[in-house]
Amino acid sequence: MTRQDIEDNYPDSALLLLEEKYFDEAILGVASRVNTPWAVCYDANKCIELLAKHEGMTLDEADEYFHYNTAGAYVGEHTPAFVYY
To answer: What is the signed CA dihedral for 17, 39, 50, 85, rounded to 10 degrees?
Structure first.
């Protein structure tokens, strides 16, 4: 699923996408959670790889940065979700 797919299929929603467009490669789809609004769902490991690649970080630096600044940030009821596997 792409950023454009989300914008096209959920035009009236308040779904939040990660600001840096290079994270679009890590979009898995849109997740539904009990008693919680829909959220864009990302592959966490892919996000870390992309962060390292685009920001010139080691994987360890990107992992720490991602968990603190991205996955660890609550930005409202449509905060993106992250899948770890």
So the answer is: 180
